[in-house]
Every structure is written in structure tokens, then in C-alpha cells.
Amino acid sequence: MEENVKGSPFLHRVVQEGEMPRVYLLSASEKAKASAKGEKPREPPAVKLKVPSGGGFFGHHIGKIMLPAGPPVASGPPTLEGKLSSAMETVRDKLSRIQEAYETRHDGRRDFLEQEKEKHRQFLMERNKAQEILFTDIVRCHQKFDTGLTPDDLWRLHDTLVMAASHEHHCYSGDAIHNFVECKLLNFIRQKSIGLTWQKLSAALDRLGLPFPFSPSLEEPDKPERNDMIRQGAKKVKGDELVAMSTLILAELILGNVPGWVYSYPEKGSYLWLTTVYQGVAAGMAADLYVNALSLWEKHAETIMADLSGIYTVKIDELNRKGQAASNLGEVLSVSKRIEQIAGEDIPEAIWERLSVKL
Fold this sequence. Notes:
This protein is mainly alpha-helical. The chain has 2 domains: 1-74, no CATH class; 128-358, no CATH class. It contains 9 helices and 4 strands, in the order βββαβαααααααα. It has helices at residues 28-37, 62-65, 80-145, 151-172, 177-208, 224-244, 247-254, 271-325, 329-358, and strands at 2-4, 10-17, 20-27, 47-48. The chain has a 4-stranded antiparallel sheet. A hairpin with a 5-residue loop joins β1 (2-4) and β2 (10-17). α4 (151-172) runs parallel beside α8, α5 packs antiparallel against α8 (271-325) and α8 crosses α9 (329-358).
């Protein structure tokens, strides 16, 4: 039930819920504003009123307090109803202005976020396009250096290295000694493969008369010997970077993808662009050599390990005896370090020597 009492700025609505009535109060001026905008007027929270056993709300004085029978008095002290009305109008007007300001700011923030997302999408599109161009240059360079690797080969090698990276993660997480040896062996073969292919790429550059690029800011035209020294130093640094790369990053470099370049690539034709092309070519060549070495290892592992067993069994037995006889921490650590060296360095190197002969 909704009523507009003459002379009162309030509309009041009483809703009976069981034996507990709820009273909604709404100023007439607010309803008029809402109607003009075509909006439904906001209703304040319901006020739960307890009905005493004697009768109406707030005893018998609700009519006198909220709904006076006579017309409003033009002069004299403000009534309770007037004060409530004035206070409610003030608060609601302020709330309305604050809400409008908040919505304006919120819309502006939402527009800003959409603009930033669009910028992000544009950056990624430009970055991905640059990667495609870099991969095209890597493929051309493979053809120029006559590596024999096609784009399909490079994609296949990329996928193989991604799987190898996952396998390395699992083998390093194991506690068994064979896991430790296997991971060390994979890492050793990968690094050796990269070192050999970087040497081959350097030889190809020399054969074709292509100088290795370095930063123009370091070049002095009137000092060719100094420039050549800097060039050789830059070549070594880029080769060392390649050797130190993880298997996963090496896999991405085959396709010209550099994860560290999140939004942009260097300018095409710049020294950094060219060195990345050369590193990408070397990454593909190294992956090919790495896969071939692992295939040979799988084929000849039993024979190679039988050969190494005769070499290292005596050394390992001697270390075992030293470990059992050790009486202090220094002796124990010394034996432990030597065992790790045999497992992680000596045996992988011996395996690589036998594989490299067959490659």
C-alpha cells in the first residue's frame, strides 16, 4: 500500500510480512526526479517496527509524529517531520552527486583499461610479426650456410627440445644416482653440440666473407685492428650466451622467439637483429646434432657403459672405502665431491668422446 499524505513530503508504503509490518519511506521530490528520468525510485532499507500489544506503531503516537492530521504550519519551530525531510533530502542529494561522480570516474577507468588492453594487443601483434620476419631470415641463413635444415625440420627440432626440457626437469627432481648422471649427460651433450655448431657457423661466416656484427658505438673506423678484436670478442660472448641457455630457451630461439623481448624486437638489419639470426641458426644446428647424439647414445649405451665400467669400477670402489673410513666432515665432503665429479663430469665427457667419433 502506497500513500501520499497531503502536506507531507513523504510517500510511505506498508508491507505486512506475517505479523511484522515493514515501512518504506520515500520523499515525494525524489520520486518526481526518478519519474522524470524514467527510472524506478530507489527505496531505502525497510525499517522493521515492532507492534506492541496495545496497538499502532510507536504506541498511539505514530499519527502525530509521522502523519499529522492538519496542514503543515507555515511558521514556528520546525517539526520533527520537517527536520527528517530536510536531513534526508540533504543526504540523498549528496549520495546522488557522489554516485554520479563515481560512475563517471568508473566509466573513465573502464575506458582507460580497454585502451591499455588494446595497446597490449597491438604490441603483441607487432611483436609476433617481427618474430615471423626474424624466423624468415633464420631460414634464409640456413639456406645460405647450406645446413640442410628446412622450416619443417626446425619446427620438429623445436618440439623435440621442448620435450627434452620437460624430461630434464623430471630427471633433476629424482633422487636416484642414475637420474643425476642422466641429467648431467643431457646437459653436457647439449653444451658440446652448441659449442661445435658455433664453430661451424663462425667458419661459414669467414668462408662467405661476412663479418660478425657488433655495436656501432664501439667501432672506430681508423682502427681496424681494434675493431677486429672487438668483433672477435663479441662473437665469443654470443657463443657463450648460447651455451649457457636452457634447453627451453634454445628451443624457442630456433624459431626466432626470444621470450625476453616481450613487446618489441630490435630493428631489422641492426647488429642485434643479425646476431640473433646467427644464434637462431646455430640453435637449430645444435639441436640437430644434439638429437643425433642422443639417438647414437640410445643405440650404443650398453656397449659404452660396459667399456666405462671397467675404467671407473676400481676408482669408485676405492672412494667407497675412503668414505667408510672417513672420520671427520672434511674427509666425507672430499669423497662426496669426487663421486659427484665422476658422475657429473668424467662419465658424461667419456660418453661424449665415444659418441662424437660416431657422429
